[in-house]
Design goal:
EC 1.3.1.-; alpha/beta; tRNA-binding; NADP; flavoprotein; Non-ribosomal Peptide Synthetase Peptidyl Carrier Protein, Chain A; 8-stranded parallel barrel; TIM Barrel; 13 helices
């Protein structure tokens, strides 16, 4: 992959952590950047600034220490509110504004935001023009291929976006109606890539280095957005980057490295959110990291009952010690056999 530029920024590589509400907070963004992501995008922030005073919203904003270029995703259905939200985020330190027209969640779509906007091309144009005019930083856009299988207008929306001055476009290869089911439509992304001259990033089902290569070959995209596959596996960026550059697969991380990364992540969550909220948010991340390891289900049932930061860290260490011991036992039996 050649270097990708978004406005004045040249990305370290063309692998981007997709924004995910409740997941891509500052600790996770910093971790994925260290693990090889070329760009990380904040959680979706509502364009309704009256909601920004809640603690939850404040934690979603840009913070000191966020990796640059700092990209913030905003969502809403009113052009002037989105423009005002974009300005406020830039004043707070955002260096790229990303507009969400890809989220299929009901609570977002019912407010005529996210992928619901794809139904109204005139409104899409009005929003994009307003936000681009409101800020002097690059504006990017995330879309789906359309509203449903009978209304796939991703190509039209991509052209509207380019005309409006959008500097890069991410396309999730499903319609709003598909949610996250079925296979992603890489042919639609390929058609969009052919139709516009701005960078196009492919998104959807990129779960391994091999799949990353296939998606790039199938779409001709300039880069990839990786979302759910990075949950509990932030090293996927390192693995994909290495494979695309060399054609070789990196070995999977050893248990000791997974433990180190997870404990660092826990410490960052506890520090960022404070003890009570940090402990609660850590539970889902620990579940993702350990999902494929033997004994994880029983461990999680116990772990989710813990309500103290030191207890969480001690329990994770104990789990990995047990795993190491059982592996040593299995190796020993293998040698004896």
């Amino acid at each position: 992959m050649s270097a990708v530029r978004i406005g004045p920024y040249t990305l370290q590589n063309a692998l981007i952590l997709a924004p995910m509400a409740g997941v891509t907070d500052q600790p996770f963004r910093q971790l994925c950047r260290r693990m090889g992501a070329g760009l990380v995008v904040s959680e979706m922030v509502s364009s309704d600034m009256s909601l920004w005073n809640s603690r939850k919203s404040r934690l979603r904003m840009i913070h000191d220490g966020d990796p640059e270029p700092r990209s913030v995703q905003i969502a809403g259905g009113d052009a002037q509110m989105l423009a005002a939200a974009a300005r406020a985020n830039v004043e707070a330190g955002a260096q790229i504004i990303d507009i969400n027209m890809g989220c299929p969640a009901k609570k977002v779509c019912n407010k005529a935001a996210g992928s619901a906007l794809l139904k109204d091309e005139a409104l899409v144009n009005e929003i994009l023009q307003a936000v681009v005019a409101a800020v002097d930083v690059p504006v990017t856009l995330k879309i789906r291929t359309g509203w449903d299988r009978d209304n796939k207008n991703g190509l039209t929306v991509a052209k509207i976006a380019e005309q409006a001055g959008i500097q890069a476009l991410a396309v999730h290869g499903r319609t709003r109606a598909d949610l996250y089911t079925g296979d992603a439509e890489y042919d639609t992304i390929a058609a969009i890539k052919q139709a516009v001259s701005i960078p196009v990033f492919a998104n959807g089902d990129i779960t391994s280095p091999h799949k990353a290569r296939q998606v790039l070959d199938a779409t001709g995209a300039d880069g990839l957005l990786i979302g759910r596959a990075a949950q509990g596996r932030p090293w996927i960026f390192r693995e994909v980057e290495h494979y695309l550059r060399t054609g070789e697969l990196l070995p999977a991380p050893q248990l000791a490295e997974v433990e180190r990364i997870l404990l660092e992540h826990l410490a960052a969550l506890h520090a960022f959110y404070g003890d009570v909220m940090g402990v609660r948010i850590a539970r889902k991340h620990v579940g993702w990291y350990l999902a494929t390891l033997p004994g994880a289900k029983a461990f999680r049932a116990r772990f989710n009952g813990l309500d103290e930061t030191h207890a969480q860290c001690a329990d994770v260490r104990a789990f990995f010690r047990e795993r190491e011991q059982s592996l040593e036992t299995e190796d020993g039996q293998g040698v004896a056999a």
